[in-house]
Amino acid sequence: MGWATSKVSGSGVVTRSGVIQHKGDLGDRLVSLDRWASREFLKAEAIYCERPAYAPGNSTTTLWSMLGVIQLHARRCRIPFVLKSAGTIKKHVTGSGRASKGDVVKAVQSMTKRSVKDHNEADALALLFLALSEQEQGGTGSPEPVLER
């Protein structure tokens, strides 16, 4: 699962990103994600996630369970939780909602001027860029989940 964060500091916007590797069964993965989210979401202003779709090797139960952990943290922190479709994220960075994973990686690397670990990190950064764009335009002020179709 890819992740990306940004915050404003004295020297501008600082962006961090990476990939979380979860080991073990679903329970172990959820505990690991819970610990990570407890650290990462303390000062978050909003949480944007990609709406799960079928992914080889991942069960729908696993993906939605992980989103449940993230949504729980958003609720506890009283910050907006926003789901975006893969097509919307792809369109934001490539101009096409049907772009390939390789196209997204290339677009993100071009935007950041650095390499990314894999397509998960590229997807997370693409989502971050979409979220920052929406926040600049007023974003979502609702602590309720916003589901995009």
SSE topology:
Elements: E1 2-9, E2 12-19, H1 26-40, E3 47-50, H2 60-77, E4 81-84, H3 86-94, H4 101-112, H5 119-136, E5 146-147
Helix pairs in contact: 1-2, 3-5, 4-5
How is this structure best described in words?
This protein has 149 residues and is α/β, with parallel strands linked by helices. The chain has helices at residues 26-40, 60-77, 86-94, 101-112, 119-136, and strands at residues 2-9, 12-19, 47-50, 81-84, 146-147. The strands form 2 sheets. It has a 3-stranded parallel sheet with strand order 3-4-5. It is globular. The model is unreliable at 141-149 (pLDDT under 50).
Brief write-up:
This protein has 149 residues and is an alpha/beta fold. It is built from 5 helices and 5 strands; from the N terminus they run E-E-H-E-H-E-H-H-H-E.
**Mind summarizing the main beta sheet?**
3 strands, parallel
Q: CATH topology, which one?
A: Nucleotidyltransferase, domain 5
| Radius of gyration over C-alpha positions, nearest whole angstrom | 15 Å
Q: What do we call the CATH homologous superfamily?
A: Ribonuclease H-like superfamily/Ribonuclease H
- Strand order, main sheet: write it out: 3-4-5
DSSP, total strands: 5
Estimated structural class: alpha/beta
Q: Helix count, per DSSP?
A: 5
Taking the alpha carbons of the first and last residues, their distance comes to: 21 Å
Mean pLDDT: 84
Annotation keywords:
149 residues; alpha/beta; Nucleotidyltransferase, domain 5; 3-stranded parallel sheet; two-stranded antiparallel sheet; 5 helices; disordered C terminus
